[in-house]
Design brief:
Strand content: over 45%
CATH class: Mainly Beta
Helix content: under 10%
Keywords: Signal
Structural class: mainly beta
Number of domains: 1
CATH topology: YmcC-like fold
CATH architecture: Beta Barrel
Length: about 260
């Protein structure tokens, strides 16, 4: 769930919603989840930021220890959201497994989504960190389920295969307003993000987090929707807000450091 799960892009209507959400102060509250802090300006509806070339294998380190997107074997996150009728539970776990992609040894992370205790999506994501501390997203193998049967693998991709390119999910030293590609597989996976603030505060059922980075995630594949994500140091994603077409919230319930 640090994972680029949201495939979205911001149209004018969503920009207006984001501005209304708080031009100077972001305040979102539902249940025990609260977030506050300054927000940057709206994301322009454009083709998206440039794709940063993937460095060679020698430019990567073995451990993913960026404090805002750490992925050490054994780490586990449990998230909750939805409504009384549609209870969502997401479990993300860093596996003690690797995958070789473009000559780079990637860490494997499993992301399982359940609604009302039924699995609707099961994904294996692949990440790696370079010498600059940037965490790269190298692809995913995803399956969607209905009534226990696989109904789609749409969104699966791997860097270097069929023109797909890796993206970045977290920088070591980002700047407010900085936009970036999280993934690019034309017509299938085109997530992008932008940093709105680097120092906000978030309270969830898992605790209170400071120095939180907030991003807006969008995609050209679904221009009607957008999402805010909140990354806490030492943990990663602690809260998500869907801005449009429907408001929604997913918050961290438990985190195990491994």
């Amino acid at each position: 769930m640090d994972t680029p799960r949201t495939k979205k892009h911001t149209p004018a209507a969503v920009v207006s919603a984001a501005v209304a959400f708080g031009a100077m102060v972001c305040s979102a509250q539902s249940g025990n989840a609260v977030a506050s802090g300054p927000v940057g300006g709206p994301v322009a509806a454009a083709k998206g930021p440039e794709i940063i070339p993937l460095p060679g294998p020698g430019s990567f380190v073995r451990k993913i220890d960026n404090p805002y997107s750490p992925f050490a074997p054994g780490m586990r996150w449990v998230y909750g959201g939805g409504t009384r009728e549609q209870r969502e539970r997401i479990v993300v776990k860093v596996l003690n497994r690797t995958k070789l992609i473009e000559g780079i040894t990637a860490t494997v992370v499993r992301d399982t989504v359940k609604v009302n205790d039924e699995v609707i999506e099961d994904t294996f994501d692949w990440y790696a960190q370079d010498l600059e501390g940037r965490v790269w997203y190298l692809g995913e193998a995803t399956k969607e389920y209905e009534n226990g049967q696989v109904v789609s693998t749409e969104g699966s991709w791997e860097a270097g295969v069929d023109g797909a390119k890796a993206g970045i999910i977290m920088f070591a030293q980002p700047e407010v307003g900085e936009a970036y590609r999280q993934e690019f597989y034309a017509g299938h996976a085109e997530d992008q993000g932008r940093f709105l603030t680097l120092d906000t505060r978030v309270a969830t059922k898992a605790g209170v987090f400071k120095r939180v980075r907030m991003t807006e995630d969008t995609t050209s594949l679904h221009p009607e929707i957008a999402e805010l994500k909140f990354y806490a140091p030492g943990v990663g994603i602690v809260l998500e807000f869907d801005l449009a077409p429907e408001a929604g919230r997913t918050e961290l319930l438990r985190f195990t450091a491994g």
